[in-house]
């Protein structure tokens, strides 16, 4: 028994990444090191969140507005800076791009050695921070194709299949990291006494159908008829249950484990929806497809969508295969 638990405790994230890539090639070493840094960012953010109510200067707004017209929270700024800090002088990532920064952030001393770019949403669902509910970080690792001549990351405007790795960190009762390198989806739980993410579940498969539908029904009046019809269908059939936390990572984690569908469709005010492709919807689509699920923007597979700029938004329908297909069939019927 002792040996068993020891064995489990020894499957740390960095070891797992190397096992996944089954090699000690430079690329495997790089990705393992990058994942270790992302995990460090997760630990730092998790520590700060766990003390948020006790410390001055953690909760609330900074008083500024970001490029996307949203009020900036102190935790957004902190978490954004954490990711930059853990990659400085790492020689690993040459560039970071996030929801909180208009343009990519270059780490010149890492270029050109670090050929990778980290795309991330440092705190997703940040309205939950002030009320002590779950939030998450979403990340994706890509390699630019060609050169970024204008410094606006045009080389990153590629479809979601180009992601080398993607995942999220969920700050809930415990801190959970879920990732995929394109070889299945795996979860790790932060053991605070060790300061390590320990393997929890390997090769997670999402059920083909699940009971949960997760969407902000307050937007019903803003949706097009297809999505309204789908919602009416769910209201009129047994076996569905609504869950929506206002934080995508938590809602997705539930769906990954228990099945169901998450929808953030276009609205009158935001025809492209709210969520951004490169650091929100594409990484989650990569994970869900690796877990045997499906992700769509309503028109095509989400992984096929090519962004027009760094902060491009897309509608999102994601989750269990059958549930996503059902939503798509309503969209099809209204064409
Ligand atoms: P954020 O990255 O600015 O926090 O926005 C993304 C969040 C998601 O976590 C969540 O699913 C969605 O916005 C909730 O939006 P709404 O309040 O419109 O339902
Ligand atoms: Mg976000």
TrEMBL record:
A Gene Ontology molecular function term of the record: fructose 1,6-bisphosphate 1-phosphatase activity
State how it assembles. Homotetramer.
Membrane-crossing ranges are none
Q: Which PROSITE patterns match?
A: FBPASE
Q: How is the cofactor bound?
A: Binds 2 magnesium ions per subunit.
User: Catalyzes what?
Assistant: beta-D-fructose 1,6-bisphosphate + H2O = beta-D-fructose 6-phosphate + phosphate
Please verify whether the record's keywords include Cytoplasm.
yes
| Record flagged with keyword Signal | no
Return the EC number.
3.1.3.11
Domain named Fructose-1-6-bisphosphatase class I N-terminal is located at 12-202
User: Per the record, GO CC terms?
Assistant: cytosol
Q: Which pathway is this protein engaged in?
A: Carbohydrate biosynthesis; Calvin cycle
User: What are the UniProt keywords, alphabetically?
Assistant: Calvin cycle, Carbohydrate metabolism, Cytoplasm, Hydrolase, Magnesium, Metal-binding
The residues listed in the UniProt record as binding Mg(2+) 2, with positions renumbered to this chain, are: 121, 124, 280
Q: Name one GO biological process term.
A: fructose 6-phosphate metabolic process
Domain of life, per the record? Bacteria
Mind giving the lineage of the organism this protein is from? Bacteria, Bacillati, Cyanobacteriota, Cyanophyceae, Oscillatoriophycideae
Q: Which InterPro entries match?
A: FBPase_C_dom, FBPase_class-1, FBPase_N, FBPtase, Fructose_bisphosphatase_AS
So what family is this one in?
Belongs to the FBPase class 1 family.
Q: Where does substrate bind?
A: 124-127, 216, 244, 274
Q: SUPFAM superfamilies annotated for this entry?
A: Carbohydrate phosphatase
NCBIfam families, alphabetized = PRK09293.1-1 (NF006778)
Q: Pfam families, alphabetically?
A: FBPase, FBPase_C
Location in or out of the cell: Cytoplasm
Domain (Fructose-1-6-bisphosphatase class 1 C-terminal) ranges? 206-330
Q: Which cofactor does it need?
A: Mg(2+)
List the protein's name. Fructose-1,6-bisphosphatase class 1
């Amino acid at each position: 028994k002792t040996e068993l638990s020891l064995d489990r405790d020894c499957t740390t994230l960095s070891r797992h990444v190397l096992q996944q890539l089954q090699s000690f090639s430079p690329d495997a070493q790089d990705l393992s090191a990058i994942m270790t840094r992302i995990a460090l960012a997760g630990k730092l953010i998790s520590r700060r969140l766990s003390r948020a109510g006790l410390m001055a200067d953690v909760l609330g707004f900074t008083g500024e507005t970001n490029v996307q017209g949203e009020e900036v929270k102190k935790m957004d700024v902190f978490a954004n800076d954490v990711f930059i800090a853990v990659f400085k002088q790492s020689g690993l990532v040459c560039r970071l791009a996030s929801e909180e920064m208009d343009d990519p952030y270059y780490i010149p001393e890492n270029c050109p050695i670090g050929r990778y770019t980290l795309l991330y949403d440092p705190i997703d669902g940040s309205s939950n921070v002030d009320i002590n509910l779950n939030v998450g970080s979403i990340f994706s690792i890509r390699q630019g194709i060609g050169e970024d001549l204008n410094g606006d990351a045009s080389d990153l405007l590629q479809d979601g299949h180009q992601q080398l790795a993607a995942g999220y960190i969920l700050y809930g009762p415990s801190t959970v990291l879920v990732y995929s390198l394109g070889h299945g989806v795996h979860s790790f739980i932060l053991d605070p006494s060790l300061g390590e993410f320990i393997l929890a579940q390997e090769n997670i498969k999402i059920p083909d159908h699940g009971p949960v539908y997760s969407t902000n029904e307050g937007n019903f009046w803003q949706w097009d008829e297809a999505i309204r019809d789908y919602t009416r269908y769910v209201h009129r059939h047994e076996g569905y249950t609504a869950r929506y936390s206002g934080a995508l990572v938590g809602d997705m984690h539930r769906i990954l484990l228990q099945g169901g569908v998450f929808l953030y469709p276009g609205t009158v005010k935001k025809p492209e929806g709210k969520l951004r492709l490169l650091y929100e919807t594409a990484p989650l689509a990569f994970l869900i497809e690796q877990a045997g699920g499906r992700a769509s923007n309503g028109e095509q597979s989400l992984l096929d969508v090519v962004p027009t700029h760094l902060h491009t938004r897309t509608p999102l329908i994601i989750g269990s295969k059958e549930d996503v297909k059902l939503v798509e069939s309503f969209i099809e019927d209204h064409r």
